[in-house]
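Supplementary Text 2. Reproducibility record for the structural model of the 321-residue chain.

All settings were left at their defaults, and a single model was retained for analysis rather than an ensemble. We include the record here because the model underlies the residue-level annotations in Supplementary Table 4.
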Amino acid sequence: MLEQASGVGQWTLEPVLESREARLLRAVSPAVSVPVAVKVYHDGPASSVQQEYQALRRFFHAFQSGSEGADGEFGVPRPCSHDPKRGVLLMQWLEAQTLHDYLWRHFYHRNRQQSAMTRAFRWLQQFHQRGGTTCRVADAGVYLNSLQFNLEQQRSTLSARRYAELSPYLRQFSRLTSRFSALRVAHADVHGDFAPRNLLLNPSQVFGIDIRASQNRPVADDFARMLHAIAVGYPNMLTRADMKHPPQHWPLLRLLLEAYGYPDTEEQRDYLLLVLLYRLLFHRIKGRIAEDPGGLWGRWISYNTRMVLEGVSHHLSSHRG
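Retained model, structure tokens:
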């Protein structure tokens, strides 16, 4: 496929990483000046390859058509070719590091971490804007239905302790949905997996990868997904000391809201926290955090998850709007 797409041979494939979804390889050839990224999907529907390729094409041109063009700060990889039957996607190779790696590498440099997170959420704002945004009434019931469905699906595998822990939160979530039944929020074709490993940074540019953009949903979906990943997965991003104050005074949340330009009203902010609560509960239901996590890392993640879950839940239950 590389030979057909490029017109040259003698390609060497270098494995880079492997995830549950796909393998990523770096393809180099002495006849081509720049490498090519090769994404090979594991056994899955051909539609996944087609979907990602179309999303890359759409947003590559959307970012290119902006005032800064090819030299702009934000973008996505240039798509080259794809073969849905083989589950292969070819795209521009980017010399950059993931936001995940950057946050860990600069663990002791909070200013650098904050700068990287600011750039990440500015990219997200541009992504939503270039895809087109609309404002309409939020349907918080979609999140409640998802939680209830997945809880029933997982009920046979959940321990009695986990089920007892989750039930009060779901009752609270059910009560909260009516509060936002008339709230109008921004919607866009969301990234779908906006997470630290799916954002690449170099000194001058930021690129989003693994894009689907197949669902038009509240922009809070993407925002809360990344907020959840950062708050739970990295040290001291949200602390118990932060949770003693109203959310508008949580340093992490304030930083990200300002970076994105998210509406700074109590109702809009609380709706975002409701979506964050959904993400926290969804991960608890699906068992993304082990019931009895082994090792220091597992215990630490579980501690962070419970801390953020308790803090967000307490705020939403105490603030009636």
